[in-house]
Amino acid sequence: EARDAALGAAEDGARENGAPLRSAGERWWRRYWRRAPVLNIPHPFLAPFWRYALYRFGCATSPGGGVPAGLQGPWVEDDQIPRWGGDYHFNVNLQQIYTLAFAAGQESHCLPLFDMIDSWMPLLRHTARILLDVEDGLWMGMLTTDRGRLLYHAPGCILDPMVSVWSAHLYWLYWVHTGDRDFLARRAFPFMAGVMRSIEAMLEDDGGRLALPMAVSPEYADRQVGRLGRNPSAQLAGIHWLA
Description:
Number of strands: 6
Radius of gyration: 20 Å
Helix content: 40-55%
């Protein structure tokens, strides 16, 4: 199927010496740059780098049927296995890619990512049910395929509530920047509530306070066991934000 789709795209592009494809591309980029903020940065590196970053973001996250950007976006090398398999890292890597949308006036570029995550809902509910024994929770894995399947099964890849919280934060930012109340009601709030329900199931009473008995401190320590502990500060900050 991928081969046939690629051949079809190549044939469409070659039609009339590529003129229709070039014309469509030029129209797309004109609309993109009209929405983008213009910054005058008096620095020989940062000024062109800002434009270059916006260009790369546009290439990697094009809405309208585009594929959400994994770790390498569309620039995955084809002569070797890419780092981390070119997968979807939800422990702030995806968030670092997509938060630029809100600074750059390109909120619609997040929609393919939301569509992909929304398509995983049965799996995310199943995972919360297995891990936490809740029927109305949502639980994301840290490193996944484009179908939401967990790729690595180390404890830190599973016991990381911030993965789901950071993803919920993207839904929230989309609502804040667009004011789309329908998106808030149908997509953002249900996702946030499902994540909060799972975290609630993890919390335990600790002398009148709530505590997180075990979670990962993201990107801390070289070994998985060194990242696991009680009440990691990043997790607590995320839970407070989500509440």
